[in-house]
Every structure is written in C-alpha cells, then in structure tokens.
Amino acid sequence: MNNKKYAFATALIGFSASAFANDIVLNELTIRDHLYPDNFKSELNNNLNFFRDGVGVDPVSKVPFDTVSIVDGEVVPFYYVNTTEIGLYLNILVEVEKAGNADALTRIAEVLDVLEETPTWKGLYFWPYDIVDGKLQPTIEGIVPAVDNANLAFSLVGVAGAYLDSTSPEKQAIVARIETILEGQIDGWISIYDKNRGLLNAGWSTKDDAALPYFIDRKANESRLAPLWAALITRDQGANAIPTSAFDDMELYTHSYTFNGKEYNPMLTWNGTYFQGMLPSIWMNERELMPDYSLVEDMTFAQMVYAAKHNIPLLSSSATVDDGYSEFGVPYLSESTVMFNNEMPPGDTGTPHATALSYIVSPETSIQALKALKAYYPNIESEFGWYDAVNTEGRMSTKILSLDQGMFVGAFVAGEINADVQTYLEARGYMDDVRDMYRSFVPNNQ
C-alpha cells in the first residue's frame, strides 16, 4: 500500500465502530433470491440461520462459536473460535447485506472491531481463541497457523472486493480497515517462510518461539492458499519477498479409479477428506484457474459413489456420531493410504457440509444428494441447522460446527465470493501472479 493509500486508510479508520449502531441483533438472515437453488430454499435458510445471534454467533463478542450442541432442543455453545470461521461469517454477512439487510454491514464493522482488538503475533492470528467476556484470548499453546490466516485473508479480500467501488463512506471505511489488517501481517508471513526448503512453514509456535515443524507441501490441501497469499502480499518486499515457487513446488498426486468400466483420475487429498480439496474454492474460481478441473470433478464423483454405497453424505473432517471429531475420508482418495499404506478411520460417517461443497462442482447433483439425504434421514435437520454428521446406521452427532456451516452456506454463494475476491485481486494487480501460480496445479505423477 503506498503512502497515499495509508493516509486514506487512516482518515477512514476514524469512521469505524463509532459510525455504526451498537445494539443490532441479527435474528434472521436471507440472501438474494437468485442464489437459492430450486426446491432448496427452506433447507438453505435453515443452515444460513445457524448464524443468528444467540444460536451460532455469540451476541457479545459478535463472532461465531466454533461448536454448538443441541441438548433437549436448546443450543449449548462452546466458547472458542478460529479465524477461518470468522472469515466465512464475514463473507456470509456480505451476501446478507447485498440482500438488503443494513444491519449486516454494521455487524461486519463490529467483527472488524474484534479483529483489530484481538492479540496477534506479527499481525497473524492465533488458533484457536477462547471467547472470554466478549473478547478473544489466545490459548496457552500459542499456535499461529498459516492455513487459518490465509483463509481469513481471502475472506477479508472478498469483503473488500465487494465494497471496493462503492461510494458509501461506511463501505469505504471497511475496505480501508481491511487493507490495514492485511498490510500489518507482512512481517508475519515473511517469518514463516523457510528459505532452505523453499516452502511455507505450517505456522509458528509462540510457546516454543519456533516455526511449526512441518511444511505446506501439498496442493490438494485446505492450506494451499497460504503460500499463494504469502507470495502476493510480500511481493514488494525485495529480498524478503516470498517467491511464487512456494506455491508452485507443492506436490499433487492422482490415482486412477474405475467405475462401471470407465476410468477416472481424481486428485488425492492427504486423508481422502473432501474439504481438503474444496475449501479454497469458496474464495477462488478454481474451475477457471486450474489447467485440468477434471481432477476435482473425478474426486467429487468418486466421493459420491462411496457415499451412495454407504448411505451417508460425502466424507470429510467432521464431528463423530458420539460427538468427538475425526478426519473421515475415502480410502482410495487418500494419498496417505494409497501411497504410504497408512491406516485411516473407518469411512462410515459422512457430513452434510461436504455434500454441500459439491455444489461448487455439480450443482444439480449436489442438490439431489442433499434432498435425498434429508429424505432418508429427516432428523438431520434441526431447528438450528443440519447436524454435522451421520453414519451408516443413522446415528447422528448432536453438534453443529461453525466451520462446517460456513462451508455449507459458502458453497452456495461461492460464485459471488469468487467474483468479489477477483475484483480485489485485479484492482491490486495480483491476478496475473495468481493465474501463473495455478498453472502449476498439475499432478507430479503424470
């Protein structure tokens, strides 16, 4: 950001929280009509309204609860959150505001208030945060994850892109505040790049005062936007700039899969979980960016076949039916299993958010699968959103996870978010670098 932009940002930041009311309550959320699929409006609204104050959102801190349980028809919240969840909430709020709800804009500003006040490490956010007296407090582990910071960055970019060309002072103030947050993270991104390996560390531990001991080295992973964003935000930092090779040099593998005599070539995620392959597509139009999107289409098809065989939704990291948490995946879509013979949890539990994510790839098939899921397991739909997991025996979790609800709803508005993100990236001169990096999204084993 040049000096003129800094001056503009400083002037507008004064027009932040004080310009908005402090007593709004979001108790019903809707999006624009064209975003509702045919015959799925009530179901999508049911999941969207998880993000009501006092349900999935803490009315004091203004951020989502990571998890809630439904006990005897009442919401029991867990008072912690991570920044990917906050980011997805912001993107959903933009769509609610576009539908005419002015209170959603106020809430966006309130969430930015929280982010500006929350403790960080070199501008990067911790994982997770406890919610204490309406404030976010880092835990004693002191983990600063690259993945959640990148997800939040792209969520913020999407919000800024939505309002970049607005003449509204309130919206321009939001853009300025976002740019200040993003610029304030540059040193943090530089600090987690390993020049010897040429890869981004997975993050930093303030407890150990050291980088986390593993790297972001796979493209078919939910972390893939971290090296991409790190290269973009640091590119003007001279010798400290993180090279685009941090993205290009990540590995990608496929494995042939045959069904009814036809061969498919799906990309492998590490655990065979669907969100690892799909979460970044909520922010990036990967259908256009990837050289061969059939890798994603084939992964989705193979997931659908496995889920249909076991009468469950698609498989991904989710709650368990006894209210734990696990990385459920399809064995033959797991790099860990296929290439390294590692064992994985039994693939007998699916999660509705994974089936919803497939809307990005095949809208009609996704809706058919979601409707069939509801018909087969009608109790999957609570008053507060769809429960997070169901197994082959029909047992369900009592939990609803904010991250998974964010992905569920985010899949249906991904086209809008993609466009807003691209608006910002184009305006800042980043898109050519983005396109160049995605040209490397080709399998290493072909």
From TrEMBL:
Protein name, entry field: Glycoamylase-like domain-containing protein
InterPro entries: Glycoamylase-like_cons_dom (IPR019282)
Record key words, sorted: Signal
Signal peptide stretch: 1-21
Keyword RNA-binding: no
Annotated Glycoamylase-like domain residues: 242-409
Keyword Chloroplast applies: no
Lineage: Bacteria, Pseudomonadati, Pseudomonadota, Gammaproteobacteria, Vibrionales
Gene3D superfamilies linked: 1.50.10.140
One family name in Pfam for this protein: Glycoamylase
